[in-house]
TrEMBL record, chains A, B:
Entry annotated with the keyword Ribonucleoprotein: no
Lineage summary: Bacteria, Pseudomonadati, Bacteroidota, Flavobacteriia, Flavobacteriales
Listed transmembrane segments: 376-393
Keywords per UniProt: FAD, Flavoprotein, Membrane, NAD, Oxidoreductase, Transit peptide, Transmembrane, Transmembrane helix
Organism: Croceivirga radicis
Protein name in UniProt: NADH:ubiquinone reductase (non-electrogenic)
Length: 429, 429
């Protein structure tokens, strides 16, 4: 892998998400040689992926080159690599570009979509966890409308314009809201020769309320906002199968749809060699102590969504969001530096800054530690917070301009099929 | 294809480039039913593709949804389709989504890369005529540097960092300049563990000067600018073969390179059924008269790069640039409207607004009809003109912001490998 020997201990970080980047930034003082591995050469700002899928933002403005984050840090190495295995007995990771010894290993691999073993669902539904996936969804949505124009079969046309989003968490809610706004503001103008009123947006939630991790008030209001936008909200309903045409559920309700977005579950991205039952939770997360050490290891840590730190306040670990990930990365970074200097370590304690979801124009819900609110003000706060946490000045400006433009013009101009998703539309390029 | 019958004559336009869009805009007054066909759902601002390849701009900001251009035009139809054949005897086009009768047909298909029959070159080199192609090149450039880090073989490493651009027209010159700036400003910071001074940028031109369509002064200055930036300029040299590793030429000079960009020739995109020898020029362009009618046809027109209108001033047709294409589209539009009203038609006459090329920061060359100039002022004019002709207010603002940012920070932040090009880096997404 061509990483030079160093007299400083080598910290290998797997994953350049919120947790991995926050950690790397704390390790910039040369106590360590740091190697960051990721299968993408960029950091993805996941909370805005749904805006890429719906043409509101360019993919490039929610991505940021990892090399640029680490520019100027001495003794830092980035490698574009896929980790194949961790050999805990000899402190070695195997990757597709070779093996690497580590003194300390930090797993920050995050989560991936969980289909709970349903391979048919996995094969036919769309996920939205990465930029390429979000772009595939963007292409598919637009292709479906192009195709809907061409058919005289009303059933087929309706299936092409019928969107089923499974999962009532923030991803599902935000995507449903954005699609509803496209239906209202853009489709009638873009497709005057199509009766776009027949387009349907459905959100299907297994539990009895949307946004179950938020307050009841937020759930209520999110549902009301979605209904105001014309979204069909289905609760206590579970999608059990999807063959690419028909989505079946645990009841006799079914949906004829060409687009099923699966946002109903995630699981930790597990690494071979680090998947022992002794230290993996039911949701495949790595069990860690308050110093982020994986159970049973001294020099292997896990932070972010992949880590499960159980405590009284969080018996199943922290929520899988950017905030806990960043705070864990920072705390581990501080501790590694402290340890190298012989100072005492700080156990992790999560400062809850609250959570938010946006449903659409002027419509958001926010649960802050001190107060909960919904509506226009929550929407402005949501935008401000997301701009603040976005990495890169240029990204912030471009995203801001897009939002202002989209708001004033009721528009989303990135509705481009750059890489067709359906075979029907593919060209050789 | 589900286009309703109309009492107005149907004009079918193939291609949503500069010519096709300019024509469509002129036909918005309901004298006709207009159907625009394109294999992409967006218009591409081709002059800026090289900035996408080199990470300076997001692809989405130089693309514009065709449906949005035509929003609100009555009796307009867009279809995402690939034209397979024109049946001139029965006024019918066959496409991958069905057949369509026309009263008038306008071919505005533009050009594609011409490898002059060299299939080995075609298979191994990169083209830069479309957004997906430009993104492939962006991925490949970045992947090569990631891979260069991994090898101990100096020859291999140098081949990965050796760029050969074949063709000394504006595309080749602008790409070479942008790569040289990346080498200087970004590589040393992004790859501190790689000796990026070994990276080479070569531009290979068959003729005896770069930018042969411009003034001698512009050619001279462009060459000087490139050399100042450290680009190796090769003139009177022709690349004759490339197996993916070694580029051979008509002399004993050869290049070991993993990246060969072929910008040495274009040919018209010809349509089956409209490729008769009687009306096709040597470069495959359709011969048209001064009213844009394809030789031998009354109701079939060609505009833009695909058309060859021979005149005393332009014995081989107009230059293949945006300006002639737009002017031809506008003139044909005006003529079609005039004809439908029984007014007289205007033969096309090209108003040369000049041509320009940018080599890098503060370095451009401009040949305007009245005066020719080079340097900082030309560079500002170049930027202003490109912003002016870019379609869409949002695109203009986003491009402008990117340029200001890139200028101030000596940076290009869109260096993202969103879709890996080399198999080595591909993941399933």
């Amino acid at each position: 892998m061509n990483i030079p020997q160093s007299s400083n201990p080598r910290v290998v970080i797997i994953g350049g998400g919120f947790a991995g980047i926050a950690l790397a930034k704390k390790l910039s003082k040369q106590e360590f040689q740091v190697v960051l591995l990721d299968r993408h050469n960029y950091h993805t700002f996941q909370p805005l992926l749904y805006q890429v899928s719906t043409g509101g933002l360019e993919p490039d403005s929610i991505a940021y080159p990892i090399r640029k984050v680490l520019q100027g840090y001495p003794n830092f190495y980035f490698r574009l690599a896929e980790v194949l295995k961790v050999n805990t007995d000899v402190n070695l990771v195997d990757t597709n570009i070779g093996s690497l010894k580590f003194d300390k290993l930090v797993v920050a691999t995050g989560t991936e979509t969980n289909y709970f073993g349903n391979t048919e669902l996995e094969a036919n539904s769309m996920a939205m966890k990465t930029i390429p996936q979000s772009l595939n969804l963007r292409s598919l949505i637009l292709e479906n409308f192009e195709q809907a124009l061409l058919t005289d079969d009303l059933h087929e046309r309706e299936a092409l314009m019928n969107f089923v989003i499974v999962g009532g968490g923030p991803t599902g809610v935000e995507l449903a809201g954005a699609l509803a706004e496209i239906k209202k503001g853009i489709l009638p103008k873009d497709y005057p020769d199509l009766d776009t009123r027949r387009a349907q947006i459905n959100i299907v939630q297994g539990g009895d309320r949307l946004l179950p991790a938020m307050s009841e008030k937020a759930s209520e209001k999110a549902e009301a906002f979605l209904e105001e936008l014309g979204v069909n909200v289905w609760k206590k309903l579970r999608v059990s199968g999807y063959d690419g045409k028909l989505a079946t559920t645990n009841t006799d309700i079914s949906f004829r749809t060409e687009t099923l977005v699966w946002a109903a579950g995630v699981k930790a991205v597990s690494l071979k060699g680090l998947d022992g039952e002794a230290f993996v939770s039911r949701s495949k997360r790595l069990l860690v102590n308050e110093f982020h050490q994986v159970k049973g290891f001294d020099n292997i840590y896990a932070i972010g969504d992949v880590a499960q730190m159980e405590s009284e306040a969080f018996p199943h670990g922290h929520p899988m969001m950017a905030q806990p990930a960043m705070q864990q990365g920072e705390n581990l970074g501080n501790n590694l530096v402290a340890e190298s200097k012989g100072n005492s370590l700080k156990p992790f304690s999560y400062r809850d800054k609250g959570s938010m979801a946006t449903i659409g124009r002027n419509k958001a819900v926010a649960d802050l530690p001190k107060f909960k609110f919904q509506g226009v003000f929550a929407w402005f706060v949501w935008m401000f917070v997301h701009l603040y946490f976005l990495i890169g000045f240029r990204n912030r400006v471009v995203v801001f301009i897009n939002w202002v433009y989209n708001y004033i013009k009721f528009d989303r101009e990135a509705r481009l099929i750059i890489r067709p998703f359906k075979n029907h539309f593919k060209t050789k390029e």
